[in-house]
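Minutes, project huddle
Topic: does the predicted pose make sense with manganese (II) ion bound?
PN asked that the exact inputs be recorded in the minutes so nobody has to dig through chat later. Recorded below.
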Amino acid sequence: MLERIESRASTIGGGLTIRRALPNARRRTVGAWCFLDHAGPLEFPPGEGLRVGPHPHIGLQTFTWMIEGEVVHRDSLGNEQLITPGQVNLMTAGGGISHAEDSAATQGRSARLHAVQLWIALPDAHRHRAPSFRNHADLPRIEAGGFTVCVLAGSALGHSSPAEIFSPLVGLDLSAPAAGRLSIPMTASYEHAALVLEGAATVAGEQLAPGTLLYIGTGRDSIDISCRDAARLILIGGVPFQEEILLWWNFVARRPEEMQEATRDWNAGKRFGSVLGSPSVPLIAPNPAGLSLRASPPQSPSR
Ligand code: MN
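Predicted holo structure (tokens), as shared on screen:
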């Protein structure tokens, strides 16, 4: 089963417009992946950059894949981590954490940004765990069929990412400097989705350009990927997530009351600690009144 799903434009901190591929009206999740923002490639005007001020998360992992530019992550555990191209920042929110993401100072040069931020819903058994953060600078890279395949999460082509995950899932970045063709073995019990980030590519027979998410149902033990010229895409997948989740603002939970409690706690300065050193102002959680299960998020996430 194949489904073409158009990303929609959304804005995140600092007024930056991004393409949001997940969640969407047709697919809330792909495996445990529950959120997918594609930002850039772009160059900010001098003095400007990504400015996502301190904000809280619960019940998820934020998974940032940096392609161009440099962003400083600061969190309430005291981590201050510069993420540079080719690296993943993985923050496990568990029961609660707060963080900020700001473009690194550029000494007068213009800041660039090309990045993907994904969220992974934590299964019930892990969603209240202690928060943690890791930067992964050394991810497996495999040359195959003219592509460099970087294993961001899970395993592929006999290599595994060191990123700690809590559901069976996979995340790959595939880039080719010129024409390429690859049939990549995948896990048949996983559903998958592909998103072209640059150039154009054909995935499972479908021609794709940036902005279109291709959903690929379960039951495939390989996926064909090709491009006629330089291209970059990501491929995500996992066992279809069996738990009914509620995603609202920056929270993933199960019940509206959990959202209301997290909102109250954040706006009262409780539970989520504090983020030091960010040049951006903290975000205020919107009012969750009227929030109900299964409804579309009335307020889109800020990341
Ligand atoms: Mn965030």
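Observations noted during the meeting:
- DSSP finds one helix and 26 strands in the chain.
- The chain has a mean pLDDT of 94.
No decisions taken; revisit at the next huddle.
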